[in-house]
Amino acid sequence: MRTLKKLLVLLILLAASATAAPHEARGTVIGVESGDTFDVQIDESDPRIGSEVETVKLADVSLPPVESAEGKAAKEFAESLLTNRTVWLDIDDRSGDGRDSRGRLLCVLYMERPDGGINLTHPFNKILVDEGFAEINDSEDDEFDPQEWWPLWVFINEVEANPPDSDEDNEWAELYNGGDGDVDVGNWTLTTAEGSVVTLEPGSIVPAGGFLVVTAKGYWLRNTEETVILMDSEGDEVDRTPILDDEDDDEYCWARHPDGGFEWVYIESSQGEPVPPIEMAAATESDLAEDDDLWLRWSGYTPSGAWDVSDFLGCG
Prior knowledge:
Elements: H1 2-19, E1 25-34, E2 37-45, E3 53-58, E4 61-62, H2 69-82, E5 86-91, E6 105-111, H3 124-130, E7 135-136, E8 154-160, E9 172-177, E10 183-184, E11 189-192, E12 197-199, E13 205-206, E14 211-215, E15 228-231, E16 237-240, E17 252-257, E18 263-268, E19 283-284, H4 285-289, H5 295-299, H6 309-313
Parallel strand pairs: 3-6
Antiparallel strand pairs: 1-2, 1-5, 2-3, 4-7, 5-6, 8-9, 8-17, 9-14, 10-13, 11-12, 11-15, 15-16, 17-18, 18-19
């Protein structure tokens, strides 16, 4: 299993090398304006920029206002990881000179590893989303596709925490595989906010483009304040839901839209089948996030403190 995992990591790195261009500029972060905007002293660059200080704006993510509590937390998080550290930039090729309307370089930002290489598996844009400090805001005007930041395409796709009638033995979660090949999820786990752990049977498969419904005996999903985390057999986190409430004893549940997508919607459950059209949704995560007071809840952000930078640099 470990040999297979190492092979998968190698393939992921090769794929990332083929699709990303983080070598377009290298520099040192000398200032953090917000969680997604930084001042970088450029050391090496392509012809679009010179050896000077550039303001860099992360592409395809959105953050709460910097003056809000959540915005301040995102800024502190970025400062802890990036200040005075070497970074590499993949500059947008569709924008004029790679810049947004305010003249900032529009980029996917990568951190340099201790050995001088580039951590291709964890662009900082992705890290902000994974840690709940940002949400995906995929612009059609730039070259980037945020889905490429998650090379393993198995997602928690639906969570039915409050099915009709009795919840006992009837709660379920659904996995979706958006990749081109089947994925063996045997011995993977789903962990809930209260610590319930459901381990998938050895040999469990999520087929390419298909679904796997996970059930358990008794009660394992809460109707309020629930979060579900998917981990692989090595204990590495693969996916997690935002904080979900489902207090209606009906046919509706929380689901990604489209299947494997970034938007969470409260919609009629479709166990083992594609999620219905978004027009049928009773609520969406983005609707709730429009209220600044609810950003923390629906972004999944938890004030757990800054990462250990050495831990981050060692991953990949």
